[in-house]
């Protein structure tokens, strides 16, 4: 009788493993967490340093986990080490958060760096997200072959 149960259980376990591999395509997705999702590095129109133009340059983060993540003390920086340090903010489970270059009133979905100059280079750059401890969470790079934005 034990042998029959084992024969039935093995195909079921193999099917579950196959299904899990299909639904979660990478270890990062399986583990969940905060990732750089989308970067708009070349704001539309002329680069006139208006607040509207500065805020059209942004980095969007995505929380792929099933629970909220505190970003307090985390750092978003470019290749030239322009840094934005996150205040006491959380990103909800499955939610997105944009970090805009210019000034504005922070909301649950938008944070503002309060800068008066552009951060992200149009020709090439790298956005790096690190935890408060300094450990790297994610990076996203682009070059001139990307028109004005890139998905990471």
UniProtKB/TrEMBL annotation:
<feature type="signal peptide">
    <location>
        <begin position="1"/>
        <end position="30"/>
    </location>
</feature>
<dbReference type="Pfam" id="PF00932">
    <property type="entry name" value="LTD"/>
</dbReference>
<protein>
    <submittedName>
        <fullName>Lamin tail domain-containing protein</fullName>
    </submittedName>
</protein>
<keyword id="KW-0732">Signal</keyword>
<dbReference type="InterPro" id="IPR001322">
    <property type="entry name" value="Lamin_tail_dom"/>
</dbReference>
<feature type="domain" description="LTD">
    <location>
        <begin position="22"/>
        <end position="144"/>
    </location>
</feature>
<dbReference type="InterPro" id="IPR036415">
    <property type="entry name" value="Lamin_tail_dom_sf"/>
</dbReference>
